[in-house]
Amino acid sequence: MREVLAEAAFQLYLERGFERTTVDDIVARAGVGRRSFFRYFPSKEDAVFPDHESCLAEMTAFLDAASDERDAVDVVCDGARIVLRMYASNPEFSVQRYRLTREVPGLRTYELSVVRRYERTLAGYLRRRWESEPDGALRAEVVAASVVAAHNNGLRSWLRSGGEGDAEMAVDAALALVRQVWGQAARQPAGDPNEEVVVMVAPKGAPMWRVIQQVESALRDD
Amino acid sequence: MREVLAEAAFQLYLERGFERTTVDDIVARAGVGRRSFFRYFPSKEDAVFPDHESCLAEMTAFLDAASDERDAVDVVCDGARIVLRMYASNPEFSVQRYRLTREVPGLRTYELSVVRRYERTLAGYLRRRWESEPDGALRAEVVAASVVAAHNNGLRSWLRSGGEGDAEMAVDAALALVRQVWGQAARQPAGDPNEEVVVMVAPKGAPMWRVIQQVESALRDD
Which domain of life does this protein belong to (chains A, B) (predicted)? Predict the structure, then answer.
């Protein structure tokens, strides 16, 4: 029933436009009563994004179950991938919805609030993992925002291409930048400063992110 | 007139609640006709954030005028500070609005779309600065999101404290984290790899961000 309503709504939005479609139109198309609609969706906007609630629940469950042994940044990147897989599982619908959302300001606003909920969920996880660290709460919010921005950058490239190619590869490439900069920061404990040292040589004019890559691989090299 | 309307609207929102205040109530309190309201504000929500449009215009003008000689990350951090100064210039109003916004979902959504416009403006500037660099567009979005997240973290601490203390100091402390991680990355040109080298020694267990700080100061040390 929920899926039937969402599908009827979406088809009507594409045919007539979002604004000109009423809830009455949707229930007539789906062949059910008006109350049924509001039993499943609080608003017309919600029917455009029928999977976000379950996706958010899946993300929350995934984060709750993640081992504290894992790098916290790796965990939130994997959490973000759950959203990506939802989009990638239905390319045609995702691409059509992307186009529709760009045309309807109300849907864009709705989407922003959904994205914000994912970001808060990821930030909440990082905050817990880093609660004993100085600036842990600040870093949690900055890293969560970075993960969401990178994820959306990769997702948007894939949607703009019309859903061609490998969505996960596009998003993984974008997330790699965040992991490169923040991943190690989260994992490395302070340790005994005299224990072991890394000596690194870099060209003076090297871009910082390349230097970071080198340092990172040196620190990892056990 | 615009300010009179915004003030009347805000007072009524505080007295009666946002939802229960009508545009008729607002114009009656301000002593003007109904049309005047819509001449200045497209919606009830807009009257709660009367300064964002001019603030966004100021940010855009600031970015347009910024020298390309400056570190792009420093420039966007300064751009974000324009927003902060708008809040800090009127602490009482900002704190009351923060409390109101937290209670009214429609205002929170509105605020999200405002924040998103700032983020897009900052990302647009960075994209232009980094257009010739690999992953420039991706980094532009990730850094803009980081700047906004750090700015909002500092701003929120200040608002939660009831507007006590130095708002700029709170935000600068938060932005320092972003500059530390991304600032140098933006500025260093690739250069001749044989020209000059930096040798850095770091304890193996050091947290990545501390190593970055050390590398950064070494690279800067001319």
Answer: Bacteria
* One domain for residues A57 and A40: no
Query: Which residues, listed in sequence order, are joined to residue A203 by a DSSP beta bridge?
Result: B197
By residue count, chain A amounts to: 222
Please tell me if residue B202 touches chain A, with a CB cutoff of 8 Å.
Answer: yes
B187: confidence class by pLDDT, cuts 50, 70, 90: very low
Q: What CATH number corresponds to the domain at position B158?
A: 1.10.357.10
Does A106 share its domain with A180? yes
Residue B22: inside a domain, yes or no? Answer: yes
Q: Specify if A42 maps to a domain.
A: yes
B191, A203: Cβ pair inside 8 Å?
yes
Contact B205 A192 (CB under 8 A): yes
Asked if the interface predicted TM-score (ipTM) of this complex is over 0.95, the answer is no
The distance from CA B20 to its chain's CA centroid, rounded to whole angstroms, is 30
Terminal CA-to-CA distance of chain A, rounded, Å? 56
- The partner residue sitting opposite B203, judged by closest CB among A141, A144, A197, is A197
Which of B43, B199, B200, B201 would best serve as a mutation to test chain A binding (most A beta carbons within 10 A)?
B200
A108, A148, A204 member nearest B195 (Cβ): A204
Q: Tell me: the pLDDT tens digits for B51-109?
A: 999 999 999 999 999 999 999 999 999 999 999 999 999 999 999 999 999 999 889 99
Asked whether the beta carbons of A121 and B106 are under 8 A apart, the reply is: no
Range of the structural domain that residue A26 is part of? 2-46
Which residue type occupies A25? D
